[in-house]
Write a structure and sequence with these properties.
With 280 residues, the protein is of the alpha/beta class. It is 27% helix and 16% strand. It starts with 10 loop residues before the first helix and ends with a strand.
Length: 280
Amino acid sequence: MATPTPNPPPTDDRARLKAHFDVASTSHPDRWAKLWEKGDYLPWDRGIPNPALVDLLDQRKDLLGDCFVEDDAGKRRRKRALVPGCGRGYDVLLLASYGYDAYGLEVSEKAVERCGEERRVNGVRYPVRDEGVRSGESVFVKGDFFEEGWREGVLGEGGFDLIYDYTFFCALNPAMRPAWAQRMSQLLSKKPSGCLICLEFPTYKDPSTGGPPYGLTSQTYVEHLSHPGEEIPYDESGHIVAGARGQPSAKGLERVDHWQPERTHEIGKGTDWISVWRHR
């Protein structure tokens, strides 16, 4: 198959973001918050949910099942979905329209406010998808993905039945990737129905150019999610070293499907991939 033509973002956007985040990674949450507070430069905001997620929810019930699950007491409840780094909340509102109780997590109070505005002003864009199950709740929470405090805003016990990562992983400094994988493993429900959905982006970008967004490959997800919490070596050009940690960890996640979506945002056409993960 021919190599797809890359769709890189404008050079000025890339340079401006890179300069904004040219500080210690511990200061990155504050840098994201400053962008939201100012509000005039949000280059990752596409204005709608990613069409690839719409198609996944419509077409892959074989992977996702329906939007209900039995809890440990045998009581039927709506599945809980999490979107870390949810932006204005488009994907959260979409998941709720499919019947999930959907939670959007953002590090910025201003971003959480924008999510509320999107729901209030444009909620009509997210109609109920199945009258038989109705919509779930949409809840927006301020917090640090890697900390525990924000979980107080989540109803119920146990992990999330669905987690969706689109532009969260690629926004993190690569040094944070082991912690990201470990946290995903902790937050994802261990029930057979628990699914982590990764829309892999930007696979077109050379990792040596820095970020955010930081360039990555499908193998980046494989190595980290197969060995959550473990340091994985990278070569001098920023590419992950495949197989360096040997067999997957017993705590690792397993990739159960992987494909290129027919539809996605324009910037990822021909280069985006979807991977779906579960506990082993």
